[in-house]
Design brief:
It is built from 6 helices and 5 strands; from the N terminus they run αααββαββαβα. A hairpin with a 2-residue loop joins strand 3 and strand 4. It is of the alpha/beta class. Helix 4 packs across helix 5. The chain is 39% helix and 15% strand. The radius of gyration is 30 Å and the shape is elongated. The longest helix is centred in the N-terminal third of the chain and has 53 residues. The chain has a 5-stranded mixed β-sheet with strand order 1-5-3-4-2.
């Protein structure tokens, strides 16, 4: 037929027939495109590498500074609600339910008795036995993997929160740089003090908790920000008191 492409000669060798095919003709173009993409990727990586290194150094610097602050806090006894506010013995209690509480708002312990924990919420060195060390390592690994830990038990007095159960989980939140922690909150209120509104639902709280739990060691969700300021004090279940004042076993 006039104008039609010539038919391959069936008597020609197979290699010669393949050389005349469109796939063979496209190979040089494909190789050229791959070379260009490789070159562009290398150039992009070279441009991004200094910035990534700078961000990594800044992150490590923040982590080191946080560890240093916590080591200094550990030298002082943990603040006690009952020592600072003895009037709470006359306060009424009201359950507020599950809340997502900023770690910076947790001031100390609500467990009465002699000081057994440092300002970093960990037991003082003389109370750190082998059982506590094992629990502590498990908590840190769980926090690093962003696992969902049981909520801690907090009491709220005024604008501050105090730990009844979950000291080691609060300590872990501090050490990994966690912004907030899930807690079952009980309000303590004296006559004339303002009080929290009644709980309206649990779904928004759970959503917020999932978002903020992801904030740790520089890993932030879209709705959480890592604070630059020093945390003003103060966590899965392990024995809350390192000695014998534990409300319950925290390894659950």
């Amino acid at each position: 037929m006039v104008g039609s492409a010539p038919m391959p000669d069936p008597t020609s060798p197979p290699d010669e027939r393949r050389a005349r095919g469109p796939l063979h003709r496209a190979r040089p173009l494909a190789r050229h495109v791959l070379r260009r993409l490789r070159l562009l990727s290398e150039q992009l990586a070279a441009r991004l590498r200094p910035g990534a290194a700078t961000l990594h150094r800044r992150w490590r610097g923040r982590a080191a500074a946080r560890q240093g602050r916590l080591r200094r806090r550990a030298r002082q006894p943990l603040a006690s609600l009952h020592e600072l506010h003895p009037e709470v013995s006359r306060a009424s209690r009201r359950e507020l339910g599950l809340r997502t509480v900023p770690v910076s708002a947790i001031r100390g312990t609500a467990v009465e008795g002699p000081a057994q924990r440092g300002g970093d919420f960990r037991p003082l060195p003389r109370f750190r036995g082998a059982n506590w060390l094992g629990r502590w390592q498990r908590i840190l690994r769980a926090a690093d993997r962003l696992e969902v830990l049981p909520p801690v038990d907090l009491v709220k007095f005024g604008d501050d929160y105090w730990v009844e159960d979950g000291h080691n989980r609060v300590a872990a939140a501090l050490y990994v740089g966690q912004v907030a922690i899930d807690a079952m909150v009980t309000e303590l209120r004296l006559p004339g003090m303002p009080h929290e509104p009644a709980p309206t639902g649990i779904a928004p709280l759970l959503t917020e908790g999932r978002s903020l739990r992801a904030a740790g060691q520089g890993r932030l969700s879209s709705t959480a920000e890592m604070p630059d300021a020093e945390i003003d004090l103060p966590s899965i279940h392990e024995g809350e008191s390192p000695h014998h004042h534990a409300p319950r076993d925290e390894t659950r």
